[in-house]
Amino acid sequence: MRIAVVGQGRIGVIGAVALAERGHRVTGVERDPVRLGSLAAGRAPVAEPGLQCQLSHALESGRLRFAQEIVPSHRRDPYDLVMIAVGTPPNADGSADLSQVTEALDEVAALLPLPCVVLKSTVPPGTSDRLIGAHPRLRERYACNPEFLNEGSALDDWRAPARVVVGIWSQEVLPVLRRMYQGPMCPWVVTTPASAEMAKYASNAFLAMKTGFANEIARLCTGAEFSVDDVLRGVGCDARIGHALLRPGLGFGDFCLPKDTAALARWVAESGGRAPLLEAAIEINSTQSGLVTETLYRELPGELDQAEIAVLGVHHQPWNGDLRAAPSRAVIPRLLAAAARVRVWDPAVGADQLTRLFPGAIPAPDLRAAVAGAHAAVVLTEWPEIVEADWRELAARLARPRVVVDGKNCLRTEELAGLPLLYRSVGHRPCTAAPVAYEVRGRQPARSAAYEVRGTQPVPSV
């Protein structure tokens, strides 16, 4: 098939590369000249395992090219299908900005002959009905096909999806979609466009509530008699619940969960309804980032305004280069307002970028320099350099009272036992002198549940 993918953000470029990998002839359409030049040169615009290699291979094979316009290279070789994967960023009121979707659909409707059009962008329920109202010719060739790609495993999720949700008005477009996907062995949910749109929002709303639930439980498990890791492990072993996203932290970090839950909440409000569970999930996740300064005020009473703080990591996850909703964007400005000096280190962010992101923060050249002389260290990313560091040495570099706030619950508590520092996590995680064995269906997991998922547990989103 000849396919155009309009929009080369994270979803669009993953789709373009994956479709080329399946043997389709793909044109990635990107209006931004800087991003277009980078793509044409074979540089992946986002960090995603396997993407750079597969992008290079697709370009070399000739099955993938990039262009600034959707117009086919030759009118005798028209597109069979156009996929719209442009952004729907939030407006100031939380609603979705649909201007890019509208513009892209206008351009597709002008193509002759008329291709099938597949909407991948996340849009509020009922959007397809309104869009097609302006282009009735597209109705029989239109499908809303939301994506369910996880950060850290997006290419694999495209190759082997857990489900394919398709919203259509005409059965005629279904064989075209099956040719595009080439029949993945997974359930296909064929429904109306409005139901497909709602399925996407409902999925992300549930994930947001699960994240909020984990944080709510962590708030209840602060006493020394609790181990929040054990509590949530016990909950997650229930097959009806599962372990994914059942981890406490500092709230939303992925960009799409807060964007989509806010858009759904706005849609509900405009419809005259209420969604108390969704509202609670948004509130819990949005306030969780304040835990860091609350902890430091408690452990450094009357001293925080004279203290030096080291922030270790600014990414939400090591494999996720999207900093738009990372907890660091809320945590570090609060620390800058409260503490005397704030040093920041992240192995994937240069000094110039750190200074632009956090004016007033002092970039540190390495991990040891970041903690040297700091009264407290705040861990915001589970970088291997942080998790696997010699914390005995780092503790010696810290200044009293040597507070460590683990915002990702990723440090190995048994290795912190007996060290001269105050370890504080999200919920209570006791420092034990030796690893504790937990039997799960006859197997013993790694020493720390938080450490097990580092680098391997994708975060469902988008």
- Reported by name, the CATH topology of the largest domain is Rossmann fold
Q: Overall pLDDT, averaged?
A: 90
The residue ranges in which pLDDT falls below 50 over 5 or more consecutive positions are 433-462
Q: Which superfamily, in CATH terms, is the homologous superfamily of the largest domain?
A: NAD(P)-binding Rossmann-like Domain
- Please identify the oligomeric state: single chain
- The backbone outline, from C-alpha atoms, is elongated
Structure summary, number of beta strands: 14
Helix content: 25-40%
Mind telling me the C-alpha Rg? 24 Å
The CATH architecture classification of the largest domain is 3-Layer(aba) Sandwich
Kindly name the structural category. alpha/beta
Largest sheet: 8 strands, mixed
- Which CATH top level class of the largest domain fits? Alpha Beta
Helical element count?
19
- Strand % is 5-15%
> How far is the N terminus from the C terminus?
26 Å
How are the strands of the largest sheet arranged?
3-2-1-4-5-6-7-8
Number of structural units classed as domains: 2
Report on the structure:
The protein folds into 2 domains: 2-189, Rossmann fold; 205-452, 3-Layer(aba) Sandwich (Rossmann fold). Strands 3-2-1-4-5-6-7-8 form an 8-stranded mixed sheet, sandwiched between helices. Strands 11-10-9-12-13-14 form a 6-stranded parallel sheet. Strand 1, helix 1 and strand 2 form a beta-alpha-beta unit. The two termini are 26 Å apart. Helix 1 (10-21) packs across helix 3 (51-61). It has 19 helices and 14 strands. It has 462 residues and is of the alpha/beta class.
